[in-house]
Design goal:
The protein is α+β, with helices and mostly antiparallel strands. Helix content is 33%, strand content 47%. The strands form two sheets. A five-stranded mixed β-sheet has the order 2-1-9-8-5, with no helix packed on it. A five-stranded antiparallel β-sheet has the order 4-3-6-7-10, covered by helices on one side.
């Protein structure tokens, strides 16, 4: 099978000769084998696993996204992805990078909310004043 992992800003990974894959979906883990029927699945944040003869088993931490299997091609479109040799290393990297990004997103949402409420207050003043 062919695998392509897409991020909003580019291609994270592209592999051929993939023997099997396991993805975490919103409904649980899903195994992808060469003869599996075509499918679409909503990905939950978690560990995506694939195996090739050359690399063996590879682990990739992915954020939410979509998996599409069409024929022998599998594409993942995710917000973020991190690769790592071992699961323990990957877990540490996820904690450092994904969690700090989540905190930054929360801070940005808070600032945007304050900005929006300030604009609304000013519009009300202009309308009534």
């Amino acid at each position: 099978m062919k695998l392509k992992i897409l991020l909003p800003y580019g291609v994270f990974a592209e592999r051929s000769g993939v023997l099997r894959m396991v993805a975490e979906t919103t409904s649980g883990a899903v195994g992808i084998w060469p003869r599996r029927l075509d499918c679409v699945a909503v990905l939950a944040p978690g560990i995506f696993t694939y195996e090739t003869e050359a690399e063996g088993e590879v682990f990739v931490a992915v954020d939410e996204g979509v998996l599409v299997k069409a024929g022998s091609e599998v594409r993942l479109s995710v917000r973020q992805a991190l690769g790592g040799a071992e699961l323990t290393q990957l877990r540490r990297r996820v904690e450092q990078e994904f969690l700090s990004r989540d905190e930054q997103e929360q801070n940005l949402r808070s600032v945007m909310s304050k900005l929006e409420s300030g604009i609304l207050r000013r519009l009300v003043r202009v309308k009534h004043g």
